[in-house]
Amino acid sequence: MPQGTVKWFNAEKGYGFIAQDGDGPDVFVHYSSIAGTGYRSLNDEQQVEFEIVQGRKGPQAEQVRVRD
């Protein structure tokens, strides 16, 4: 499962980008792709793991989970 660091996440707009560990383009993340229930958000510099799917505008993160 790919891992990375949240570059930025705008909680008001509900999206942001993850920088992949190693090589690879930044990955778009939408709040609906964050694992969990209730209010879902990410913090800048947070370490995460995720699946990558091809979105309409490029790579997109799915099943995003915060790493321990």
From TrEMBL:
Domain of life: Bacteria
Keywords: Cytoplasm
GO cellular component entries: cytoplasm
Major subcellular location class: cytoplasm
A Pfam match: CSD
A GO molecular-function annotation: nucleic acid binding
Keyword Cell cycle found: no
UniProt entry tagged with the keyword Cytoplasm: yes
Domain CSD: 1-66
Listed Gene3D superfamilies: 6.20.370.130, Nucleic acid-binding proteins (2.40.50.140)
Annotated localization: Cytoplasm
Annotated protein name in UniProt: Cold-shock protein
